Amino acid sequence: MSLLDSVPINDRGLLLGDGLFETLLVERGAVIDLEPHLDRMAAGCETLGFPALDRVAAARAVADAAGSLAAERAALRLTLTAGSGGRGLDRPASVTPRLFATAAALGAAPEPARLVLSQVRRNEGSPASRWKTLAYLDNVLARREALAAGGDEALMLNSRGELACAAAANLFWISGGRLFTPALECGVLAGVMRARVLARAAHSGLEVAQVRAGPDALATAEGAFLTNSLTGVRPVATLDGRSLPIPALIARLAEA
Amino acid sequence: MSLLDSVPINDRGLLLGDGLFETLLVERGAVIDLEPHLDRMAAGCETLGFPALDRVAAARAVADAAGSLAAERAALRLTLTAGSGGRGLDRPASVTPRLFATAAALGAAPEPARLVLSQVRRNEGSPASRWKTLAYLDNVLARREALAAGGDEALMLNSRGELACAAAANLFWISGGRLFTPALECGVLAGVMRARVLARAAHSGLEVAQVRAGPDALATAEGAFLTNSLTGVRPVATLDGRSLPIPALIARLAEA
């Protein structure tokens, strides 16, 4: 199915954002963390009311896409839509999801992030805020705002004004020597790399507090970083133009 | 362009919900309210940072789709995506939007609505909440919730808990003989039929208050109705199973 190169214009992913995706890192042909990504997509299928994920087909699409590209590092995207449907919001009685995967070469790891606080709020009042859905326009608009303001990534608050995430990454910060990250209930994606950082910190005896916190928490932070599957741990260099320190702990996490 | 029957899998509408749509009524081949629908899509292009809408191409796609179907009444959908793009959230330096239109026959006007209060909140903190974007998953999920609860349409509150809209319609109610509707700042689509009802009411010397109000306003209402371009004015029969009266005023508006 990774050979699919187009979808019909009655696809519900295209028409309504009715679908899910995953972004995976491929290093020298090896797909990193396939299982947790498929786990998340399978759980997203449940939330959205899709048929159970066909993990065999999904893994095959991923393998085909990973094999289609000879690159040191690649970004692989797996996309699942609700398939073809009739007019309007309601899915057909029987949903046949559509699955495809593509890969693109990745350049060097990006520089530390220049965050800009976005006006676009994260909607913690939607189940979709916990999943990577095809309805990702808010993140597109937040990123555009950050680029226009001279940054390279957006910091998004939720509708209660609490810290949530970046447009394409989870957020962590350090305060009083402790690690913090927004709780999932803040409208946050359960990131695969977020889970790895939590597990790694626990393994090192470091506690990470999952909290509801306002943007002031970043104003007094000793440093902050972003996580996603492609860039791992990425330090934050600036927030709205103000420099943040990058303590040794973040540099260590980024290397690991 | 209405002859397009598929889009490539690098289309940003498909991958990210990066695009807009309009739904228009066609009666015996005549497209109703084309200009206000194109006006809204053009304004949405500005909000999303798209190139200016090609109104000539859009009108041609609409006319072609309307002419493709011999039906007494049809629903016509015009879809505009940000076109093909590379990997990730950021649009290419030069965006070439992709436009297509389709039509489907419509049955008889639906019965009065059986509304169910949804758990999915409308995100008034996103500019997308004011436009018909391809990131419509929240509306899909709200509608699913309503159907599962035995209703046929969802009532959505915004993140502040204020009345916003239905999954695919604007909301009005009557209280003390006056008409009310949620203000646009509640995260509400500036519906074409909403604007027509506002204009018609003003013409009849009826004031419509555009307000921020909680769901209690409906508990004491003398009646409520939904509006959209396909069903016009549709009375609300029940809210969470409780019957609402349908006063003569709503019946008159529905006929007009």
Task: Provide structural commentary.
The structure is a homodimer of 256-residue chains. With 256 residues, the first copy, chain A, is an alpha+beta fold. Helices cover 27% and strands 30% of the residues of chain A. In chain A, the strands form 2 sheets. In chain A, strands 6, 7, 8, 9, 10, 11, 12, 13 and 14 form a 9-stranded mixed sheet that branches. Chain A is globular. The relative contact order of chain A is 0.14. The interface between A and B is large, with 56 and 56 residues.
Please provide a brief summary of the model:
Two copies of one chain form a homodimer. By secondary structure, chain A is an alpha+beta fold.
Q: What is the secondary structure topology, with strand pairs?
A:
Two copies of one chain form a homodimer.
Chain A: E1 6-8, H1 12-16, E2 19-27, E3 30-31, H2 34-48, H3 55-67, E4 73-81, E5 98-105, E6 113-117, H4 137-148, E7 153-157, E8 163-166, E9 170-175, E10 178-182, H5 192-203, E11 208-211, H6 216-219, E12 223-228, E13 232-239, E14 242-243, H7 248-255
Task: Give short descriptive properties of this protein.
256 residues; nine-stranded mixed sheet; four-stranded antiparallel sheet
Low-confidence stretches of chain A: none
Outline of chain A: globular
- Number of discrete helical segments of chain A: 7
CA-atom Rg of chain A in angstroms: 19 Å
End-to-end Cα distance of chain A: 35 Å
Report the strand count of chain A.
Answer: 14
Task: Compute the average pLDDT of chain A.
Answer: 95
